[in-house]
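call fold target=Crp/Fnr family transcriptional regulator
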Amino acid sequence: MKFLKQFLIFSGLNGEEFSQIEQIAIKRKYQPRVFVFMEGEEREAVFFVKSGLVKTYKIDEEGNEQVISLLQSGDMFPHVGFFDRSPYPATAEAVQETELIVIRIDDFNELLMKYPEMTMKVMQIMGKKILDLQERIQGFISKDVQHRLTHALKKLADEHGVKKGEGIYINLRITNQDFANMVGTSRETINRTLNEMKKKKLLSSDRSGIMIHDQEWLNGCE
C-alpha cells in the first residue's frame, strides 16, 4: 500500500482508513497489446499503474486511432466518472508488460461516501484533466502540425522526462504512429517533422525513448 499513498486522493487517509483500501485493492498483470478495457464497456473499476505503460485512445468515424494519454507508474485512470455508471470513454491497452492496482467502482464509491475529503481530492483531479483536455482541443483547432508535435513532446517531457546532462530524456518507447495519433496527422508527416527537428539538433531518438537537446526550445512552446 506504500505505492498508493503517493496519490493525492489517498494522502489524507490514516492507517485505519488505509487498511480498508488494502482490503479492496487487487493486483493484475497485463502483457503487451492486452486490453485493460474497451471504449463503451461498462465502467467497473479504477486503475493505478504500478509499473509498465498503458495507452488510452479513441477510434474516430474513419477508423483512425486517436491517442488520449500514455500512462505509467504513478498514474491513475480513468480520471473522471467515479460517481456514475457511464461506459468507459476510451480504450485502454497495455503497451508493455504492466502491473496495475485495481479498485472496483462500487467499493471506491463507498469509500468516497465514507470519507468526504477523498471526494474533494477526486474532484480536483477531474478539474485538472478537463482543463488539460480543453488545452489540447484548442491546440488542435488553431496550431499547425509542428506546433502540435512540439506541444506533445513538452507534455511527455513534463510528465515522463528525466534530466540527463543539459537535456531531458523521455524514457518511453513511443512510435511515430503513436505521435501521429496523438496530434491528428499521418505517420509520413510526423516522419518529416521529426527529421527536420533532428537536423536542427533539437532532439534525437533511440529504441528506448527521445532525448531533447534544447530545453529552451521546448519550454518556449505555448
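return ok
The domain at 4-140 is CATH 2.60.120.10 (Jelly Rolls). The first strand starts at residue 26 and ends at 30.
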